[in-house]
Amino acid sequence: MSTTPTSPRPQLARPKRADARRNYEKLLAAARAAFTEADEAASLEDIARRAGVGIGTLYRHFPTRQVLIEAVYVDEVEALARSAQDVADLPPWDALATWLRRFLDYVATKQALINELFAEGAESSVFKACRAMMYEAGEPLLERAQAADVVRSDVGFNDVIHLVAGISKLTPAEPGQTERIFEIALDGLRPR
Q: Which of 10, 38, 115, 190 has the greatest number of beta carbons closer than 10 A?
């Protein structure tokens, strides 16, 4: 896994001055927290307040709510994509299972953010680029596991992503149920 995924970052560039960069990061962290919570309709004023900056600072970095949402989403996807490199040295099965577990956790906590992105009813180019980055990061892990004969050869990465995303949307009836279902699904990926 020698290639680093390319960033689907929108036209925004991270600020260069130290104080502007700190404010940018504080705003991203505050928005991430707000969009991850049950109240996905957090106001921009609330996000600025959480970050400890004025609304003008927020608008200087993120001119619209959509730009802020996309920046948070891209930041999260980039971290998930980088995590594929973190597990690349593990044995093929362990690398794939560990990354899929991270993907499961990621999707489970990002429903509000994804709902915000789809609020307009059409997929944004940023969302499509993020999906491509995720595939670029995770697909080699699946292919490596298949080459090692520890994953069925008739399974595609798209199948696996949909499987894990579906599990992440479950409302468990008891503690640990999601993890058990995830383990059962992983077992289903093994060759017969």
A: 10
